[in-house]
Fold Translation initiation factor IF-3.
Amino acid sequence: MWPSADGVSPSNGRAQARSLQTDGPAQIFNKQEITAIKRPAPKGKSKKARINDQIEASEVRLIGPNGDQIGVVPLADALEAAQSADLDLVEISPDSDPIVCKVMDYGKHLFEIKKTKAAAKKKQKQQQIKEMKFRPGTEEGDYEVKLRNLVRFLENGDKAKVTLRFRGREMAHQELGMDVMHRIEQDLIELGTVEQKPKMEGRQLTMVIAPKKKK
């Protein structure tokens, strides 16, 4: 029987096919190839720090409990140092070569992290819009009082909405309201920026000032 164009006779091809059918994955791939096939790590999940006997390394770069750099030491010595101090050996940089570990009270460390997060969450508050009403002919003393309230709003991290209402024939002199708005903007220029420029809404002129981000 003549061989095919690829140099393989039909009988040999059938023999190879039978070989592939009878051979399982372990026969087709060698051991190294099998171990190289790994499932990707799930995304979005942070790895928990390994401590004490969970650490897998022959040597580590050790940091003392007070932050002092001890240097590269055998893992056994690092564990002994932590045990002698009645503390834990915590892996803080697993991707370094060698890995970086620190001697610390791991329970206290976790408590401090939790405490810090709780404090930060408590400080967070939803930004509000506080309104202050003016008139085209607001007297100077009244203007200063209202301006101080606007300052307080911005310093507390809230937005300030300035509303100026026109009555009767005052609608014919809207430029007076614009003058008041411009003055307010200039008086608050160090604390806030105009987020919404003055605009008419019915018989009232409104403007919104947002607090400047603290550096």
